[in-house]
Design brief:
Elements (H helix, E strand, L loop, with lengths): L4 E10 L2 E11 L4 E5 L6 H8 L8 E8 L2 E2 L5 H10 L1 E4 L3 H4 L6 H13 L3 H14 L5 H4 L9 H13 L5 E5 L7 H18 L2 E6 L2 H7 L2 E6 L2 E7 H6 L4 H8 L49 E4 L2 E3 L4 H11 L1
Parallel strand pairs: 3-8, 3-9, 6-7, 7-8
Antiparallel strand pairs: 1-2, 1-4, 4-5, 9-10, 10-12, 11-12
Helix pairs in contact: 4-5, 4-7, 5-7, 7-8
The structure holds adenosine-5'-triphosphate, iron/sulfur cluster and magnesium ion.
Magnesium ion binds next to helix 1.
Length: 325
């Protein structure tokens, strides 16, 4: 079956450098895909490239196939219909995405009008339902409230309500909970999973937190220096990683399934996109590197059922398993 969203060799160039180069991944129907990687690995730019929410100077290469249609060649009017209507995005910091001078209710009814043609009392009724659905108490009264009148968690819920107004098939959630405390994070993640089931959506969840990935994602794509290093079912990646970078991430956590912390612990830092090493981009930090790793960039290839890796030593790593390596 055609994936809902399929990125094929997606690249983003800004001012002579390419912070994203050759991202290929699929998102299936009803699936939650986790997108993980250290800071600066290109997670946000990849999500923004899908919806063409990039700075004007940015150039996009490759394909963004949405139900088989390439969004990169769609005219601006076409992408506007997809954006918000079929694919919605929530951002890490809701204050940057919410309009501070418009009541939250109005921001929802605007989207309902634009994408579904709902207006007046019908739009207001639906807006109350949506606020209710995301767990905002006393929804009818809160319709007239401004974003600054909401707490952080409530603001994030309001942003999710706006994102879901038009009934999108895919939600791109870019670190939707990082700015919140852990209890509220859990509530928002549970809410996203419940809404995903209720609304029959797919979700791409961008996160630093492998604990969150273990608890919420069906599959994972691991990004490093603008490229996909490994993809596969979550449990598989956690138990049988086939890329030395994934293994490094897992080893940097005492217990990946439970840890609540940001990715760290691999010695060294990711490369500057303006000065990428030759061959495998992880080679300068990799404990498994051999001479061949520095010659050519290893392509992302299938290494096991539903698992792809861009590591020359995938077979050795798979044979060793996570614990033995
Ligand atoms: N508007 C921009 N102009 C130039 N470079 C940019 C721009 N936005 C991002 N970059 C660069 O692209 C790279 C990837 O950025 P991106 O924001 O996608 O990373 P990320 O994986 O989302 O990181 P984080 O986890 O910190 O959010 C970084 O090196 C960043 O400095
Ligand atoms: S290809 Fe080589 S350098 Fe890159 S992650 Fe695999 S072993 Fe390490
Ligand atoms: Mg980001």
């Amino acid at each position: 079956m055609t994936p809902l969203l399929s990125l094929r060799g997606l690249g983003v160039r800004i001012g002579g450098v390419a912070p994203v180069s050759g991202v290929s991944l699929d998102v299936g129907r009803g699936e939650v895909l986790g997108l993980v990687g250290e800071s600066g690995s290109g997670k946000s730019l990849t999500m923004r490239a899908v919806l063409r929410l990039l700075p004007p100077a940015a150039q996009v290469t490759g394909q963004v196939l949405w139900e088989g249609q390439d969004l990169t060649t769609l005219p601006e009017g076409g992408i506007r219909k997809v954006r918000g209507g079929q694919i919605a995005m929530v951002f890490q910091e809701p204050m940057t995405a919410l309009n501070p001078v418009l009541p939250v209710g109005l921001q929802i009814t605007e989207s309902l009008g634009e994408h579904l043609g709902l207006r007046g009392a019908a739009a207001r009724r639906r807006a109350v339902e949506l606020l209710d659905q995301v767990g905002i108490p006393d929804a009818a009264r809160r319709l007239g409230a401004y974003p600054h009148e909401f707490s952080g968690g409530m603001r994030q819920r309001a942003m999710i309500a706006i994102a879901l107004a038009a009934g999108p098939k895919l939600l791109l959630a870019d670190e939707p909970t990082t700015a919140l405390d852990v209890t509220i994070q859990d509530q928002i993640l549970k809410l996203l999973l419940r809404l995903k089931d209720e609304l029959d959506m797919s979700v791409v969840l961008v996160t630093h937190d492998l604990g969150v990935v273990a608890g919420t994602c069906d599959r994972v794509a691991v990004l490093y220096a603008g490229r996909v290093m490994e993809t596969g079912p979550t449990e598989r990646l956690f138990t049988r990683p086939s890329h030395a970078y994934t293994l490094g991430l897992l080893h940097s956590l005492p217990d990946a399934a439970q840890a609540r912390q940001r990715l760290r612990g691999i010695p060294g830092v990711p490369p500057d996109p303006a000065a990428l090493p030759s061959g495998c981009r992880f080679a300068p930090r990799c404990a498994y590197a051999v001479a061949a790793c520095r010659l050519e960039q290893p392509p992302l290839v299938p290494v096991a059922e539903a698992q792809e890796s861009a590591c020359l030593r995938a077979a050795d790593l798979l044979a060793a398993g996570r614990e033995a390596a």
